[in-house]
Amino acid sequence: MTTAQQAENKNQQTRTVAELVDYIQVLTTEIQELYCLDEIPWVVGYSGGKDSTATLQLIWNAIAALPPEKRTKTIYVITTDTLVENPIVAAWVRSSLKQMKSEAEAQGLPFAPHLLQPDFKETFWVGLIGKGYPAPRGKFRWCTERLKINPSNRFIRDVIRASGEAIVVLGTRKAESTKRANRMKKLEAQRVRDRLSPNMNLPNSLVYSPIEDWENDEVWIYLMQWENPWGYSNKDLFTMYRGASADNECPLVVDTSTPSCGSSRFGCWVCTLVSQDKSLAAMIQNDEEKEWMQPLLDFRKELDAEETRDKRDFRRRNGGVQLYERNLDEGISIEPIPGPFIKEAREDWLRKLLTVEKEIRQTAPENMRDITLITLEEMSEIRRIWLEERHEFDDSLPRIYQEVTGEEFQDPRPGADYSLLGRDEWIVLEEICEGDAMHLELMAKLLDTERQYRKKTRRVGIYETLEKCFNTSSRSPEDAIKNARLKRELSEAVSQGDVAKVKQMTLGDVAAINEVDEGKNESDEEVTWASMKFKKENSE
């Protein structure tokens, strides 16, 4: 009988402690055989939670039991710090990795811990404050791939590039959810090697999940009864989970009526994909020493609050207006999909975040006083986006930073502080535009586009860029939305084959254009920046 068949049989009924002990020995032998079978490197995913800790502990103990001459293959242990992790968990994981590295060297084991982070251009705050993305929602879950998936996939791809293949070891379990169980069973059917499932996201890699059939309580029994091999405290881990449970209990389940603390799940403190951050709230509720994190919980509630549309642009990031059908009490309304946060809202989020960081640095325990909620590199990228992509040349980020922190912003990006346009020019432009936001935006874009192209030796593309400024910023919100609705109606008429309506709408557009351009000669061509360029070239 194969190990997989044994696991399936064991999973049909709850294992006793004695049976779990026997099965752990079976798994130990399996891990050793898989490890020694080939030269394919292993990459173990470690989050510091109970499942990944149990998985790594199994691997560690199995490899430590091998003779030194057989421990020839590197086992990479990777942890992804999203930079918005629960501070307590983040500190726990960083300390664990340091201890792990020290013990691996002392015990002569081939474990190589790595702390990964998202690219600074893909962090949560660069997305929300820099680009103006709204807080993640189920239909716009922009965070997971950028913060979690991409950093680990980049590392695994590097391993595959160097070795040709990789085996990814994960602490996934079927008991986590029905969805997870169904997915794992589908991948099992595609296995080309016993216990190794294909990795659908990364070619040339296989997934090994040694505790895939374990229940929550079996994980805790193992962690409590088997000593942590790299010298970390599983009892402290148990306490951390207990503190993150609403009832401050994390019992070992002895019957079906006993709750388990396995439902407490740590994650990003800014996460708005769940209704509330139960683990962070429970930590604060259960431990007076963790009350310093209350500002994080309050900030997260603000992120999750129902958004007012005056904080969001009526256009998407590309400047276009996209409509959708909104269900209201009085019926269906065709409205523009809210776009990114406007300038004032993005500045307000930055100011609030820096204020929270300043507050918790003053109230946190001594060992957490250096906590960083947003890095200088992230703020530098946010500043670049505001200046170069949004054309907001008033350069408000250094001013906001100094107002909140009392310190001068030291931008690590070379040449970041050099600019022909600044706050003074922006104030003058605001006075000229007399409160017309679209006029201010258009003039700022035109001026800053000229500034950006001024530095280039060849100004190829400037006319097209200027044309885009007019296309996205010259209409009032009312006119832009009206134009989008006309396009939508025309598209629907075309799709329905309504020739009469298409002709009517097309002739209506022509009439409107003629009315606007009254007095223009029939021979006159439409004037665009591109056509002006071509005329200039022809005249030469």
Automatic annotation (TrEMBL):
SUPFAM superfamilies: Adenine nucleotide alpha hydrolases-like. Gene3D superfamilies: HUPs. GO terms for molecular function: transferase activity. Keywords: Transferase. The keyword Nucleus does not apply. The keyword Secreted does not apply. Residues 43-225 form the Phosphoadenosine phosphosulphate reductase domain. Residues 518-540 are annotated as: Disordered. This is DNA phosphorothioation system sulfurtransferase DndC.
